[in-house]
What we know:
The chain is of the alpha+beta class. Helix content is about 25%, strand content about 25%.
Amino acid sequence: MNTEQSVHSAVRWLASREAAECAFAELAPEAARLEPTIIAQHGADGFCVGCGKRGWLTQPDTAPGDWANLREGLLCRCGLNSRMRQILLTLDALLARERSLSNAVVFEQVTPLFPRLRERLPQLIGSEFLGPSCRSGDVVNTMGQAVRHESLLATSYASDSLDLVMHFDVLEHVPDPVAALAECHRILRPGGWLFFTCPFYEGLERSIVRARMLDGQLQHDLEPCFHGNPVDGDGALVFTQPGWDLLEWITAAGFPPATLALCFDPEQGVVTNACPYADGHTWPIIFVAQKVGAPVAKPRALR
Ligand SMILES: [Zn+2]
């Protein structure tokens, strides 16, 4: 990894909604100045924390009538997009202060991000959701490789066993996000860290429920919406579009109030998603929370 530029990333550890909203307001003029140029030029020059190279980060063409999603774009030649670089930069900042997070899991395995995570966490266990007929912990040959299946609602990991639990853009696809976060809480050791992203829409006071499971039956409240899924060409159904009540889900799952780790770093190709609609706009945020309980006396605040 090139240490010249990657060590000083712009991660801000924000302890409250108010602090986050102040940071958004402070950075909004810079985002508004830079992002239209990136879209017009179909990319930007930047440093990639994944491969350690500086180069052109390509913004793919947008479908007619659609908007350019910079969060899933700004692709490096190594395959990482903006969101994946955001994750690595923020994880590096966490690992710089928390050095004993070796016993870690992440709920993805076949993505370009996974090998970069494993460079940092050699014991990292990855998994994918391979369908309701699989049992958590099963290893299934998928797309030519052995892939572990885990459901975020009922994992195979032991209680109080993990230093770090990570999931990236999974929570919006789970029928019961609070139960999923409670499962993360169960498997973390006291003092262990939850570290996750989802498309978090700061313009939404309350989350939008698009679909739900009622007595085992899928019910759509709104037009079905799908996101890309690396192990299923049909995509993954979106159950929830998270808004600010996400912070309440985290505490309802047993965690103390989360820290919002904001990594807006245009030099490294990390900006907002550039959505022109207030209820679809998202900043590069990672939600971070530390499980309380013996033997750790008190969670340390991230500053
Ligand atoms: Zn790269």
